[in-house]
Amino acid sequence: MPVLWGVSFDATAMSGVVVEFIKIAKSFADQGYRVHLDLGYDIKADKGRFFQPYQHERVPDWITLDRVDGVARIAGYDREFVAATLEAVRHDQVPDADRIVAELADAIVRTWEDRGVTLVMVENGTLPENVTYTKALYRAIAMYGAAHDLGRYVLWRDHDLMWQSEPAKYGSFPYPSTPPMVNSPHIHYFALHEEAKRRTLEWMPHLRYLDVLPNTFTAPSRPARPDFREHYGVPRDAKIVARFTRIIPQKRIDRDLHLVARLPGTWLFVAGDTEENPEETGKLRQLAAELQVPVVFGGVLEPCESTGNGFSVRDLLAHADVVSFLTSYDYESYGNPIGEAIAAGVPYIASSYALYDTVYAGFQAPVLDIVAHDLPTPEFARQVQDLMTNAERRAEVVAHNQQLGTHHRAAANALVSDLFPPAMGEHVRLSVVLPVYNEATNIHDVLRSLHDQDEIDPETYEIVLVDNNSTDDTVAIARAFAERSKVPLHVIGEPEQGVAPARRTGMEFAAHRSRARRDPGERFYLVSADADCRVDRRWLVELFVAMEKDKAAIGVCDYYYSAEHFVGRPRLWDAIQRTLRCRAVTFSLFGGFPDGKGFAVEREAYESVGGIEIFYQLQHGRFVNHLSDDWDFGIKVRGSGHDITYAPRSKVEINPRRVNHALDEVIAGRAYGNDGIIVMRDIRPEAPERAVDLTEAEALQAWEFSIKDFTPKNTILPVLLTPSFLDEDAVVAFFGEDLASRIGTRIAEIRAEMSVVDFLPIHSYKTPTYRLYFEFRDEIFARLRATVGEDIGFPPPLPECFDDVPEDRFAEFVKYYCEDRESGEAHNYFGNGGVF
User: Fold this and answer.
1) Which of 87, 410, 452, 732 has the greatest CB tally within 10 Å of its CB?
2) What range(s) does the Glycosyltransferase 2-like domain occupy (predicted)?
């Protein structure tokens, strides 16, 4: 059973921070997680609970209150040390505590090992209350994550942002003594609203994996106790203004007393710990007596989510007429009581604290302008009175706020489920990774084709959709599909634009999750699919069978265009079919190379070569990621000694828009770039497609670029990377013994001449591949004509620069042409993505 470990830097049994932890943790508990919560008694100094045992803390029964073992035995680490450290932080002086950090980190790791922790939630960990513990936590996360090969297993949320909103207590920007947030491969950070995110990035501009996760609105799960009023002595006909909060000066409960003094027949109910600050409690009692306000100090109620027999905040909400949040201007980042009121269908009132409009934009409530008026005004009291007594107005406000709150809750739940999805099913053998960007038009049909696979159990595979910053309805459509899908569908995001980063993120996500499944020595496969191509109904089972049978590292599919899309365009159709016929022959011989439209890679092989690598190139003075990550990945796998198998009955239909809306570029041989720059081109239609056929000249040009792009990659590159192919009977039969022998000899000569250790780096293999093409092109085309068909024809004309090159110096000038680092002429000659 997976285990969630939560740690709160609040050191309070029940606070807004802990309540929000419970709401998020409940979604994991529903997935089968055991939930452990460290309330932070051994972290924060000012609450007076350091090393205090748990006794009467009220949390739901599905939560185990826990803490790090052996902390009290760490020499020098106690309440006094933490208080002194915080005082030093306020003066930008942090004492040396490396030993304590190391011992704390070790204790955390040992505890997590003992409990079997698989997921960690940190609440307010960046708060400078205990910078030593924060440093230790970062260290423990790195150690534990590396030891267990965990991905981003930590949800780190800075709830109150007090280090930004209370400069008098914690210091001011740029917080030199606060431990900086680290770009850890194990941590996903969350701020509670966009302003908090903006201010966090102002402090840490290079921080990645920071999202907004607002507080949620969870509707009541049980009926309220009817004896609530009677128990606390509140008359049945009295109105109740509810305030559930810490009883400290910053919360400004005195404002509620002044308000209720203006509301006849109204009681104030304050739910909070009267012993936390006895002096403040005494002042409030005295003020209530002076104002003659009926007030109940009801103590700490059980949380809304509690299923115990005691009175809870839900009971108070059910009997309250309005919930109050008249707090200090610069104190609160996110007022949790407002969220509870919205969820429970109770109107609320608030003060215009600094971030109120940021957090609760669009919600309806009377708001006290505390910049102009420190205490409630008669007009404000009139608005509150109307809200409590005007049934029509009350119902309108409640309905509006609940509708908006439901939207917020759904967005927050979706974010958490995307980033921390359910554990992989124990029978899953394949994860299908699908990078997407603005594919709303196609995505339903693509997902349907991936879902409706024949002769494969839906429990044996899953779909991982990687959203690459879509701005249309792609993700919404995918989520709706997931709700009805028999095949698990996970939606995750990748912020770096480009299919290569998106594919890599999906592959890494699947690989890490697969490690936690039951694995009795079975091979596990990462499968690539494309968001604009549909797979045939036997696509996955044929790919799976081929991989299981051949035990290859990579399995490559067959691709085709549907003839119905090219009716009336015989010249274009002929050029496409000739290329695909050549592909069928060479892939049968060499296994081919993976294409993002459909391939599978065995997980161990994927990880052994370092996974998908993203190459970067300069384009117009900016770095851009290289498009052909799938091809380059195949080269790494092949060049590392792994086998690639071809599954010809595993078929993918290519979307015709790849030709229709890039036809001019295909004809000219620059479909995806120029001068050696190969980058993604958006081929979604912006204008009516070109539905007419090619002219004879265009057809010839398109075919020549296609075959020039195809031949070096598919007939020469395989043997360059794996010369042992030239010893196989089928390959010798294709080339002929003499040609196969001469190609092998020439590869060895070029390798020695270039002093190349291997041909894996992209610019190491391109030059020799192009050279071999020029030197052997006539003989290779003769073999293609003999094997594929006479219509393959002859090699396209050489570049004009070779017209004046003497025959005996041809190979010499081919070398310089292919290695030209100024113009990229060889790249342009060979088409740079012109293949169909």
Assistant:
1) 732
2) 431-590
